[in-house]
Amino acid sequence: MMKKIGFITALLLLATTAMAGTIPSGTLTFTITPKITENTETVTVWIPYPMSDAFQTIDKMDVSGNYSESAVYRDPASEAVYLYANWQKPAKAPTCVMRFHIAQRDRRNTAITDNGGAFPELVQEYLKPTAFVPADAPEMKAIAEKVTQGKTGTLEKAKAVYDWVVENTFRDPAVKGCGLGQPLRTLNQCQGGGKCADLSTVFVTLARAAGIPARDVYGLRLATPKNGDVTSGFHCWAEFYLPGTGWVMVDPADVRKMMLVHKLELKDAGDWRKFFWGGDDLFRLLLEKNARGAELIGAPEKINYFMYPAAQVDGKMLNYFDPANFSYKVEFELDK
């Protein structure tokens, strides 16, 4: 077993400020600068637009840039909320800056209770399979049935799915960014390997296959926020709906990350499995919930998962994993 002192030390390294009892607040700045040529006619960018909720307060929102027009839209189907900006025959390098302040509450849920009730109508949507969450795939149905066999109630079943994902996937550091978020590919071609978008959507897909409402969540998860560049902090996690409690946060991908970082075997990862079950007190900016198959105004096709800024130049979508052609930066300034 991992010794308790080792776990505490690891947590201090991961979230010193959070462990001290306060989650840091501050200002985040997204700067988007797509690459163009002298013949570029049209440029469009879409940036995930954060909203306040029970755990974060977003205020002092400021958007600036040399764009021709901008607006904030919501895609009803995917629930994605985004800042849209467009340039027509840009004479200068396109720049769009979104700056806002964030204050947070502890996301840990210490009263997870299953009252055995029915799922409300509002969450029925999160039971459905989609092209991006193939919960009706025979393979997913078979795994879900096997994993939840003998389990009763939503809570037991969800915990069984969480444990299965932790035990049957792994973090692959060679994967670009947060991964592709394609659950069947993750389990088959990649033998369970991937990063947070890959592992989180495996949980969501299996949960839905087991009859549990679930959704992906996208944002930034920072360890101990410091002033400066935090672009590498993009992160994906998941939520499932529990009658009697509401939405419950889980992060099996971070369990596997901590196992990799601290060179742990499954038998030694029990504390991390507990830590990332039901929420945590780390700094997290929530950008989008669900946001699968986002249909963005002007985009040529739906986006599998919408977390990174997206851009299009003369009708061609840029690869957000290619910083040479699509540059964006996220910076954090801690409140004094």
**SS content category:** alpha+beta
Radius of gyration: 20 Å
Order of helices and strands: HEEEEEEHHEHEHEEEEHHEEEEEE
What separation lies between the terminal Cα atoms?
A: 40 Å
Q: State the helix count.
A: 7
List the helices and strands and how they pair.
Layout: H1 4-19, E1 26-34, E2 42-48, E3 56-65, E4 69-74, E5 81-88, E6 96-104, H2 138-148, H3 153-168, E7 170-171, H4 183-187, E8 193-194, H5 196-209, E9 214-222, E10 228-229, E11 234-242, E12 246-250, H6 252-261, H7 270-275, E13 283-289, E14 292-294, E15 303-305, E16 310-313, E17 316-317, E18 326-334
Parallel strand pairs: 7-8
Antiparallel strand pairs: 1-6, 1-18, 2-5, 2-16, 3-6, 4-5, 9-11, 9-13, 10-18, 11-12, 14-15, 16-17
Task: Give a brief rundown of this model.
The protein is built from seven helices and 18 strands. It has 336 residues and is of the alpha+beta class.
Describe this structure in words.
- It is a single chain.
- The protein is α+β, with helices and mostly antiparallel strands and 336 residues long.
- 23% of the residues lie in helices and 32% in strands.
- The chain is built from seven helices and 18 strands.
- It has helices at 4-19, 138-148, 153-168, 183-187, 196-209, 252-261, 270-275; strands at residues 26-34, 42-48, 56-65, 69-74, 81-88, 96-104, 170-171, 193-194, 214-222, 228-229, 234-242, 246-250, 283-289, 292-294, 303-305, 310-313, 316-317, 326-334.
- The strands form five sheets. The chain has a five-stranded antiparallel β-sheet, with no helix packed on it. It has a five-stranded antiparallel β-sheet with strand order 4-5-2-16-17, with no helix packed on it.
- Helix 2 crosses helix 5 (196-209) and helix 3 runs antiparallel to helix 5 (196-209).
- The chain is globular.
- Mean pLDDT is 92; it is low at 1-20.
